[in-house]
């Protein structure tokens, strides 16, 4: 269904095709962790625009005064999760956020937490030993091999996206090797084995699966 919405702060019309793909349980759990989420939804807006609108809503700042960047706070290069700031705010904004899209489906997340990263992808991830060796810890490969064959491709795709969200959350550490990190195979996953790049707070990281519709997988990594 196509809807026309209006942003009350900017007056801009937004044309979205809303999809009932989000899990209420996931949304509830993200809120418990301090994160608000918009999507996944089919939309014409860019991830940055979706995050900007969510940032304005959550911080109470005018839409036009919310700025989104993909520049790393440490090195200045465009990588890692998106983040936003507000122009002219009386106090520094403590909210962080991220947004991403693929094939016209987007999701944005924001909260008063230490870090957020969002990833969407298709389930059509071709089996390849070099991908598995680079992405998965031996413990994860052992768990995946125990999944029934009929369910293994989807389980593999979901876990690949969980690892992708974790790497995106790490941000600046472009030398982070996913295969050295072990993450549980669960809808709310936790880091089981870490590396120094993740810092001392790795036990607090949660990675939640997103229901992004047929043929799609998604995950949001949160450092509360």
Rg for CA atoms: 17 Å
Q: How many distinct helices?
A: 5
User: What is the count of β-strands?
Assistant: 12
Specify the overall morphology. globular
> Strand order of the main beta sheet, please?
1-2-3-7-6
Contiguous low-pLDDT stretches (5 residues minimum) are: 1-15, 17-21
Strand percentage, roughly?
25-35%
Care to describe what's here?
By secondary structure, the chain is α+β, with helices and mostly antiparallel strands. 26% of the residues lie in helices and 34% in strands. The chain contains five helices and twelve strands. Strands 1-2-3-7-6 form a five-stranded antiparallel sheet, sandwiched between helices. Strands 8-12-11-10-9 form a five-stranded antiparallel sheet. The model is unreliable at 1-15 and 17-21 (pLDDT under 50).
In brief, what are we looking at here?
The protein is 26% helix and 34% strand.
What descriptors fit this protein?
224 residues; five-stranded antiparallel beta sheet; 26% helix
Helix-strand layout with pairing:
Layout: E1 2-6, E2 13-17, H1 24-32, E3 35-43, H2 47-59, E4 66-71, E5 78-86, E6 96-102, E7 105-111, E8 115-122, H3 129-135, H4 138-145, H5 149-170, E9 182-183, E10 188-193, E11 206-210, E12 216-223
Antiparallel strand pairs: 1-2, 2-3, 3-7, 4-5, 6-7, 8-12, 9-10, 10-11, 11-12
């Amino acid at each position: 269904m196509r809807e026309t919405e209006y942003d009350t702060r900017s007056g801009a019309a937004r044309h979205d095709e809303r999809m009932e793909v989000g899990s209420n349980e996931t949304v509830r759990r993200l809120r418990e962790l301090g994160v608000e989420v918009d999507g996944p939804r089919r939309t014409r807006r860019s991830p940055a625009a979706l995050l900007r609108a969510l940032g304005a809503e959550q911080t109470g700042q005018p839409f036009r005064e919310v700025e989104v960047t993909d520049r790393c706070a440490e090195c200045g290069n465009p990588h890692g999760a998106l983040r936003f700031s507000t122009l002219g705010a009386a106090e520094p904004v403590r909210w962080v956020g991220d947004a991403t899209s693929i094939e016209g489906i987007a999701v944005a997340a924001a909260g008063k937490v230490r870090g957020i990263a969002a990833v969407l992808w298709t389930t059509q991830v071709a089996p390849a030993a070099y991908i598995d060796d680079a992405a998965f810890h031996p413990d994860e490969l052992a768990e995946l091999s125990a999944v029934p064959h009929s369910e293994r491709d989807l389980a593999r795709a979901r876990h690949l996206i969980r690892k992708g969200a974790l790497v995106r959350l790490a941000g600046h550490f472009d030398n982070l090797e996913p295969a050295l990190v072990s993450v549980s195979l669960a809808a709310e996953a936790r880091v089981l084995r870490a590396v120094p790049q993740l810092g001392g707070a790795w036990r607090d990281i949660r990675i939640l699966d997103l229901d992004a519709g047929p043929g799609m997988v998604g995950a949001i990594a949160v450092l509360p």
